[in-house]
What does this fold into?
Amino acid sequence: MNTVIVPCSSCGKKNRIPANKQHLHPHCGHCKAPLKMTNQAVPVELGDRDFHDFVKQAPLPVMVDFFSPTCGPCRTMSPLVDAMAREHINKCIIAKVDTSKNQQIALFFAIRGVPTFMFFKNGSLIDQISGAVGRNVLEQKLGSL
Ligand SMILES: [Zn+2]
It folds into this structure.
């Protein structure tokens, strides 16, 4: 599981937060002040082992970027996905799955091409879109959840 280092705005100490807990309003381990995750959060890296449990339990809508590290359009989309994770931390969860390492989950969803974006709410797949798309397209899908 990937992590994010978040400096506490109250005491200045750096906290290491697991990416899959970023949305749970984490507090500073030193002074207990709430950590401001906006502009700090990173996409949650999910895989074969933890995908279903995470999406099922997620209290917010989830957008998943199914990508492959060797795919050009995926790399083009990556900064946009990172930016959405930073900005939307309290509204939705942005996740990504490396399909070259997690083939079970790619098979489960019958993903034929990357990038593919899937949108989940209350554990259910609501919508999906394939190929490199503009931010407005992704925002619109998220907004409709
Ligand atoms: Zn602190």
About this structure: The first strand starts at residue 3 and ends at 7.
